Amino acid sequence: MSERRRGHGEAGAPHGVADRRAAGGTRTDQKRQAITQAATGLFLRQGYEGTSMDEIAAAAAVSKQTVYKQFTDKEQLFATIVTAITERAERIAETINALVDEIVDLEAGLVQLARAYTTAVVQPPVVQLRRLVISEADRFPVLARTYYQRAPARGIAALAGGLERLAGRQLLRIDDATTAAEQFAYLVLGPVIDRALFDPGAPIEDSEIARYAAAGVRVFVAAYT
Amino acid sequence: MSERRRGHGEAGAPHGVADRRAAGGTRTDQKRQAITQAATGLFLRQGYEGTSMDEIAAAAAVSKQTVYKQFTDKEQLFATIVTAITERAERIAETINALVDEIVDLEAGLVQLARAYTTAVVQPPVVQLRRLVISEADRFPVLARTYYQRAPARGIAALAGGLERLAGRQLLRIDDATTAAEQFAYLVLGPVIDRALFDPGAPIEDSEIARYAAAGVRVFVAAYT
């Protein structure tokens, strides 16, 4: 819901209107959304510590009182945002499931899956959020663990399910699907995500994603067929 | 040099005395070392943005003027520290080289190498530095890239050289040693380092390291023999 709203903006988004009616408060919801959008941008650009509730209120064009009324404190606002953004992981998981079930040629299909998965994970907002959560993990261990379980681990779980279905179709021989899924993920996207984290100025090229996907899948298929 | 001094402290370290004479300034070096130690701890605990030059001066028991005289500004002090700490990567590279050249039984030897490598990389100060550099990568892209090239990429390069020597001994069949080294690294330590980054409260157990080492090496050996 909140993801959709963030993506589309309010104007001309009929489901947004319906959602607001269902939640029973058009103006409150609009303010909440404005605060969430402003805070996400500020946290991503400036980090948690470098962002004040005053700045968030100013960027959202609401009073500081309104911010506190909606979110209690900065920590709760931060937690709400991270949770909302991890809904993105659900869509990545859905993509994984759909692509796995389309596989006919194993190696070609896994390369396509690897490319789609890596492309989704190295989108700048995802990388920025990952960077933000890692940098605040000491201060918010529960939040970081929650993010990890809902986002990266959600992708691994979807992959594990997919690999099990491929094993059921006799295309792979898998003992431990979760371990195999982690291996697949780190083979194809590990180097790419690290490059994105450590070198934010240099864009990730499709050719780089394709190269790691092909090389990683080759190793994976050699081990699991 | 600075690594050795940091490790041993000044007192009773004969090479420290010699170094200081060569550098021509006992008191200056002592102050520089005190500032570096204090700043490293503060940056690691509080992040770059959350640490002031005042705090660093207080923690090092020197005047703020002395801090600025030695390091120009906070950015330069931060850069000096990150560079110094990445010297640790050289020692990890030496460990990799030594272990590769001891390998007799391929799979058992690679598992031993994987365990030593992962154990070195998930030491709390290494993880904290990695977290700090990732969190500041947008602000200091050159520094982050430099860190990456000197630390994680240094380990990969050592691994690549080692895998080439194993191929020379006919123990492995490798086309692209750097890609194979990245695959080895991400297979055996990728999930462990991410767990350390996202879940700093839960210690990394030897059994977890051993499990990923064994599973990763099994996949690697299946693909490259």
Task: Summarize, please.
The structure is a homodimer. Chain A is mainly alpha-helical and about 220 residues long.
As for the CATH topology of the largest domain in chain A, it is Tetracycline Repressor, domain 2
Choose one word for the global shape of chain A: elongated
Order of H and E elements of chain A: HHHHHHHHHHHHH
Spatial separation of the terminal alpha carbons of chain A: 41 Å
Q: Report the sheet-strand fraction of chain A.
A: under 5%
Q: How many alpha or pi helices of chain A?
A: 13
- Specify the CATH architecture of the largest domain in chain A: Orthogonal Bundle
Give the proportion of residues in helices of chain A.
over 70%
Oligomer: homodimer
Measured by residues with Cβ under 8 Å of the partner chain's Cβ, the largest interface is: A-B, 42 and 41 residues
> What is the arithmetic mean of pLDDT of chain A?
86
> What is the number of independent domains of chain A?
2
Total number of β-strand segments of chain A? 0
Instruction: Output the CATH class name of the largest domain in chain A.
Output: Mainly Alpha
CATH superfamily of the largest domain in chain A: Tetracycline Repressor, domain 2
Give the uncertain stretches of chain A in residue-range form: 1-24
* Radius of gyration based on Cα positions of chain A: 20 Å
Q: Quick one: biggest sheet of chain A?
A: none
